[in-house]
Design goal:
This protein has seven helices and no strands. The chain is an all-alpha fold. It has two domains: 75 residues, Orthogonal Bundle (434 Repressor (Amino-terminal Domain)), CATH 1.10.260; 46 residues, no CATH class. It is globular.
């Protein structure tokens, strides 16, 4: 099922430690009403400068935002596993166990924890990169 722009922006915002719509509007440089309209599917095609701001503030690729606008985004960008070594035997075993042993809410909680852990590692690496750039 395709992820629309409203879903993408709302989920990306809530993943940023208690960021409100007001916070996002100030950081992007637009009105609170515009952010609310985007997250409620009333503004389905924001101006390019707003898309650029959303990309920058929410750490989203512009391509993913446009894919959400056109209805071709099929998974959240943070669910990608491209930066993982999928040949790691421990990681493979862990995912097999999660899929085969757990059901329902327990399975979703484990997957959420894995996503959270990966996001934290990405944030740490990005912070290290920014620190190196500022030196």
């Amino acid at each position: 099922m395709a992820i629309n722009l409203a879903q993408l922006i709302r989920e990306a915002r809530t993943r940023h430690e208690s960021m409100t719509q007001g916070d996002l509007s100030r950081l992007v440089g637009t009105s609170l009403e515009n952010i609310t309209a985007i997250e409620n599917s009333r503004n389905r095609q924001p101006k390019p400068e707003i898309i650029a701001g959303l990309s920058r503030v929410l750490d989203l690729r512009i391509e993913d935002i446009y894919a959400a606008i056109t209805g071709t985004l099929n998974h959240y960008p943070w669910d990608k596993v491209g930066d993982l070594d999928l040949k790691d035997p421990e990681l493979e075993l862990m995912f097999q166990q999660v899929d085969s042993l757990l059901e329902g809410e327990a399975k979703e909680r484990v997957k959420s924890f894995i996503r959270f852990t990966l996001d934290e590692e990405r944030r740490r690496l990005a912070k290290e990169k920014d620190t190196r750039k500022s030196r």
